[in-house]
Design goal:
homooctamer; alpha/beta; four-stranded mixed beta sheet; 12 helices; globular
């Protein structure tokens, strides 16, 4: 219930078209309506080019299609992002919308009805190893669907510094940097020491043995000796792309 | 803003004593006022004989006294429970209220302005070892301050079943049972198998080596093969007494 | 050996129909017979509409059917609950009893010979995300088979508070609440802050990376800053439904 | 060695003012000089009003004073931040600079030679419990010393939502939010669901038992179901204030 | 035996004061020969009816057969125990030896050329739940192949004490007890409190969620409040049967 | 209620000196009396020279004295073992009994009213490092007080095999071996490979860093590739001595 | 860009064959070129007989072939090592190079264009159990491809010391020793106590239950009481072979 | 040497075909004598300038002095290293030997009777932060006492790459490198990528929160993407210096 609706209700009471009792009843529903988070979410998402997100893992193609149809149905200009999807889901979604694009590296489907750029600068996504690219690409696609210019540099692990330093200019030009690394997870510390902008670190489950499914990289990143680093969950490329987008829109 | 206040406002609008604009402004503040959790909390606590609780650890005697004075100041019939306190804090609180009682075993201070019994049955607090008594007593005092009849049986660890079975009648008569145990944390499983009522299990940090500060007991209780067991945090006698009280008041 | 049997034996001794030696021998077997937990269990379960429970995971359909037949054979009015089952097991059980119902969301089979409501109030089962529904439904079916009125609200995660607040009335009317959540496991804290009744929290293994199979949610729930929360094992919807039932029957 | 310096050197070679051998020697030092991170750091810090930071824990007052004198000596307009300090260190530093201010809640000393505001918006620091204030204040002082307007709201834990919702306007007005919470660490998820800006989450070691020194809160925050949340190390108020500052300067 | 002793011995041989046979005997006690581990092992195993053990997991039927043939080839009266085997391995081994018996519950193959009883008393194997029987049976078969009389009682979990107490006589008569339990692992504590003999506890990986693959049961058993309990690895029924056998032969 | 008491009661009934009703009432109290674990414990301990054990840690000297007086009061021939004690407790206990001996290495007090040897063979206690001696001595004193001949060999860590092999004869002669080791905890595997008797392994918290308070040694011992090893809790010298005693009495 | 190239460039400038602007441009690329890690890597690898390494896990045969072709294409005398490969990948690589050899035990493919021995001594690879051989063989092949003489001794676990001591001469002759062990991971401590050369320890994931995927062995090795032991990741035979090679080339 | 060989040898002696001296020599090669660990250790240590090491933590000054006197007494040219010592222990040791030097940063006492350099090259010890210097210095002093030339570079953490690159020449000249780092432990990966020699990594317990006492750095180092890295225990500067010494002597 927004301001206009409240005014209308009050006018109805004043004009005695509505009883006080009925108005009380409606107003008691107001806290939620007034908080109106859903609507705010909705408006924000249209206004800012934000995509609705569907986490496809554990859902059937039919379920993903149903949810996507619901999202697209009401507002066709909307962007939709489907993460952790596969070829089968893509074929099903494709029938729904010709705009659907499949990014096989990250298993992401993007429907970009709105391709406006709302981010102020460039988001750079850096990945330490080739095995981290799937997670990095999830961040890339997420940031793109949310209206950002995105650059990426891959295979720039810290045991071969020259590969990273080769990209110093890209690092220097980025407004936000997403750093993706498995194994010892050292990339964010090195990158963050080279720049003055916020670095969003994504540990990946790449590794074996004492990597413990990404725990080693996660702990390393949380203990970064560089101060401009914050961290998201293991393999959470989507989250990093999302956080970077909220920063880049500021 | 409760129902009466909303009616009054609407009557004011209808009677044109209040402009629509002003009413809108007031109503927009409503969500919080209407949710009014603080008030509800407050009323509930007076109505049900619930105590306000002060966690004294890490606070100076002066701070505890200040908070307690605030709680008592407004409503003198109120019960106050101060957990993780010590002799020094008690002396300071004692000057504030002659009703303050110190329970040295559990380090708990109780001010019971209201000694009404609101619990329907008896809460039994069982502790496996003598070292678990501090935590058990915190549960006992909490449940008492919240208006319950409380019984306790201590040193009934499972390696000497006869000690526990000796108290079968108390077990059978309880409406809720709090089970406190460190080390292997097996007491709740055995007790819960003997009764049909809810058992609230409290792991304690009693033990050494692979007890890992109560982790062993906590995991054991979470994996209880008895189905009528739920668990609170390690050493959280207060929480167990509180949960048991909410159950016993039903 | 119950009271009647003991009287009979003593009469036999008094009437010298039985030697003292033989009576001593029989009485030495008494502790177990006297404790007679199995019978008590049995009576309790008939009297209170409690179901016998079969954990199907790791059992063949044949084994589940055999156990179920045993349970039903003796006492046909009995309720039986089979958890962690599947379509194949259901088909086999169905041949045994036409009353068998399969709840595919939770993989639960319920045979409800007795549909009496023995719970005093309503049990509300709240789940944070759509992926938590399987566990939530296990709690729902368990509580129903044990003779409770059950309501449920799903997809009310704390990152969209309005969805939860929309159901304030259901929260307010419940006598016991089961809160199911994976990921950060924050739902029980928020719900428990809104109500005065006991909240049984169920962490789920929903999530990835640093959720560590539900550990994150489990630890969060054990550390809830709301005092009326107790916790069961990860994914243990059955346990939560069972605990809630023991509370609701009080 | 920047472009101008290289040109000058080459002109010297061309003009035969400098031998090839000497030029080779100078150029071989170039990679480091050219990367020149130290200088960049240095310039950045003067230009952007960034403070140099001294981590005082484990250092003697004399050591802290010596480092601070070095930092202040070269460039008197500079800001210096000393974290994890105490009264004794403050007295020693105070003799060095009259500008030194001690923030006892967080154990932080700030010397603000430059009080320019370089942050574009307001940073809001929210803390769940009163025990989290020390960490929150470290974030506040850090962000202030780095040239930001900072607001704070404390004691807004999720088990009493009204306390948080009371501050909806502050939440809505912030450009970046730092969320500090111990125990179950649920505050960032709830806050992030109410806003569209980046939320930097700080788990604290507040709690006992299964909080495992802040691990419970850390895992909860990493698993937040809100997408605009990133996380720093346990009790790392400084890091959160720093990250928020790098974001707010964009 | 140092240089001087060896010289003295050799001088004795040279001077014919000592026979070669006696010198050999003394020299055979020299550390290495005396250690003579392989031979001692070998003799011990023939003399004591001990079986050689093959851990079949991860080996092909061909490999298992080859090893078994080697073991049987040299000494046909020998017992062989093959653990973690399956039907396919059994069929292959069966062709080698008609004496081979397959124990499908535990996946164990026993070839008992020697069925002498060398254990002094009875080993009792108790298992808490039906799902623990596979591990329990591995202990049973191991102890039998090693020449012990073995009894077993299953499904005597602590949440139904009467089931355990029903077997008091078996408990009282055992010379060594093996206790197998998953979930909360409480059985060894209860059993050990009822007897005065050594109890070997075997945690199993039976359970889910916070059982963490048997960790909960393992920690519980290590923290047993009964003093006559020692523990072997998770699911290590073989090890428990072996330890119990070494005890029972004393 | 023992056999004599039951006979007497039945004779009373037969002689009509006692009504059936009263006999029923008394017999209904029988389960516990008949189980009579306490008495059995008591008799066993007198008969077998077993000591009662007091865990002194966390108890005042007064409390320890009071408990000890109780134990000694009733039956003066009894042995008492007080673990985790100190000089102060010893002085207090010494006043109670001139027989009290303090073993400062292990912090153990022994009162040996009965010095009969009930163990059949020798228990050998082996410790890997000098820092493990405190725990080893606790095992030694426990086993001695429980009536065993005990030998010990210390500083026989596996990185200097010759030190261990020097004691081959002691290893060969032991009926039970207790192996105490911190750090990598390898001693039990090596020792158990040299003997055919049961080895009780005790991990100690000796070490630093990744020893994690004894966890490294504990896990190593649980995973021993020698089959005749079972394990007790970290630093639990008492438990190992107790288990070894129960074995040695067989 | 090495010294010669810089001199040539400067001579060109001096001789006015090259403009200052063009020289600046080339020199600005120098930091990276001068650091020139890639080239150094490249030269080193040719000069020292080092192999390029491809981690095949998670790559398709096509991808592995493409990378291998790239490596071989430029410099045909080069050695290539492909780890974690399988039969299918081998068949694909085999078509590329007739020199490719498949080591099925370790799943390693080696292409040895250069079979020069560059290691100064012999590397000994010792494995505790037969299940550790896969990891051990990875170390063997790695060290061979890197130009070392390699010996191996398998199945020398510490519970049968004689098997290890049988190989004393090989131990004594090795210049570097790689020790591979799962379960309790005790082998490196025992071996390192017998030699004075560096021992590289490799924990393996061999084991079950409380081996926790190799964690037990890893912790044991990190806590070795022998000082000449350092450790690589769980199952990292390649890393151990590589470290041993870098040592052996010194 | 088996029975036949011994007989043959003895027959040879008896028949005077073999001299006693030669027989003794052959017999001394018999496994145990040949193993002769203590003596070999002893000789090695004199011959190679190796120090005996005393771990002072948990020992009284008197105990340390007694052990040191024993070590020095027999062989005065010997080097002794005392780790984890303090000023008080130093004063006591100093009275024993004027050569004793105290290194307060690392708490190490060195008595260097023999200052010969036996290492072939230079050992470089690099430390990431100033707080890591204590551990680094332990490595430095250890390596020096063991006869090596040692260089050190401190405060070269990866978040300020220029500090590390400034020391490229030292890195290039080292024969072995010890890398000491706490927090995210990234230094070894970066350093190892710059050199071709073995890198011994030492995690330190420097850090807070999710560093978990050095676990984060330990895991990072074990997962290093550089292949020439091996790892020792947390804070084990001694071990790293020792391993580096064994390598440098090759």
């Amino acid at each position: 219930m927004d301001k206009q609706q409240i005014e209308k209700l009050l006018e109805g009471v004043r004009a005695r078209k509505m009883s006080v009792a009925r108005a009380v009843k409606q107003l008691r529903h107001m806290p939620y309506e007034d908080l109106g988070f859903a609507k705010i979410d909705h408006h924000r998402s249209l206004r800012q080019g934000f995509a609705e997100v569907v986490y496809a893992k554990g859902k059937t193609p039919q379920q993903v299609v149903a949810i996507t149809r619901g999202l697209l149905g009401a507002r066709t200009t909307h962007n939709v992002l489907i993460t952790r999807a596969n070829e089968g889901i893509f074929r099903a979604v494709r029938r729904l919308s010709r705009d659907a694009e499949f990014h096989p590296l990250s298993g992401t489907i993007a429907i970009r009805g709105n391709r406006d750029i709302v981010g102020k600068g460039t988001i750079l996504v850096a990945a330490a190893g080739t095995s981290d690219i799937a997670v990095a690409e999830e961040a890339v696609v997420t940031a793109e669907v949310m209206g950002n210019r995105v650059e990426s540099v891959y295979d720039v692990g810290v045991a071969g510094l020259h590969r990273l330093l080769h990209h110093r200019e890209k690092l220097a030009e980025a407004r936000v940097i997403v750093c993706v690394a498995g194994m010892e997870g050292a990339l964010p510390s090195v990158v963050a020491g080279l720049v003055a902008v916020p670095v969003v670190a994504v540990p990946t489950s790449v590794g074996y043995g004492a990597s413990f499914g990404g725990l080693a990289a996660l702990l390393a990143m949380l203990n970064s000796c560089a101060s401009n680093v914050s961290v998201v969950n293991i393999d959470n490329g989507f989250g990093a792309g999302y956080v970077a987008s909220t920063i880049n829109r500021l």
